Amino acid sequence: VLQVHVVLLPSSLISSYNSTVISYLPTGSHSLWALSTFIVEDTQFPEFSAVVMLDDVQIMYYNSNDNSISYRASASELSESEQNDANIVFRHKHKSMKYRALESKTHHNLTRGINVQQRIAGCELMDSSSSSPVLSWDAFNGEPVEELIFNKYLNTMESHGLWPATWNQIKQKTVQILYANLYHPLCIKTLKHYLSKEKNRVIRKVKPRVRLVSKDGGTRVSCLATGFYPRHINLTLSRDGQPVDEEQTTGGELLPNADGTYQMRKTLDVTPEDLKESHKFTCTATHLSLDNKLDVSLGNSCNITSNNVYFICTLLLDVMLCFSKNR
């Protein structure tokens, strides 16, 4: 089900989520996001569907065919009252996105074909237990059309885009009341609920394994960090102790691993002039799991895992036992 939903998301909205939402979240914070899709015209997919994510872990799914919430196998369910609140939110999202989609369809004079309205909305919680504004982005056929930001502490609603520009004061106030009394408290409450239930999964820290290698006869230097969690990481390539400008490197995209960890690769093309000189290239990684920054040079790697340590200790113990017996 999740795969179907993600397939429907255009690259522009996925890019918005990755570049805007993820970069917005400070290191050490936790977030709850709903990725919703409304489809105009009949297709093999539900008219409306939504995936709810705690950080990068899917916790629930909703679609208009069943009008009910499906939970990830190991996720704990909400209480009856909380589930009723969640159903109200999903039904309201369905209704509002349908209205937005039909408005956009008329605005663009689209009379036929499949059209898609999408929304990313959610909140985040800092380690200090302070909460962020509720954020919401809408897109129609892959083009951003609306942005809403509700700040609980200032009791303000910022709105940008095609449709908010047409709202009068009554409409603006109605949306603000909805966010203040339903969306914000329910989002934070649900975030705290699942954060306590899933803490072993989302609060875990796994150290990255980092390698710096030379490729294509020395014309490319590539740094790979893999197996780390959480997803926030900084990789810096340096030449003779000086950081290389990001414009000179390629890659840098965050990619998932099958085990729930992440990987990132950055590559530098070495110029013919650099090849003539004896430069020292290093890769520096900073991550929540590391007490200090990790520097790796060409020919070295840092990928000692707990399994490696166990193997080495066992081998040393066997050697010591054999040595004592021989004595």
From TrEMBL:
Domain Ig-like: 208-297
Keyword Disulfide bond: no
Matching PROSITE patterns: IG_LIKE, IG_MHC
One Gene Ontology CC term in the entry: external side of plasma membrane
Organism (species): Denticeps clupeoides
InterPro entries named in the record: Ig-like_dom, Ig-like_dom_sf, Ig-like_fold, Ig/MHC_CS, Ig_C1-set, MHC_class-I_related, MHC_I-like_Ag-recog, MHC_I-like_Ag-recog_sf
UniProt keyword Glycoprotein present: yes
The protein, known as: Ig-like domain-containing protein
Keywords, in A-Z order: Glycoprotein, Immunoglobulin domain
One of the GO biological process terms: immune response
Source organism superkingdom: Eukaryota
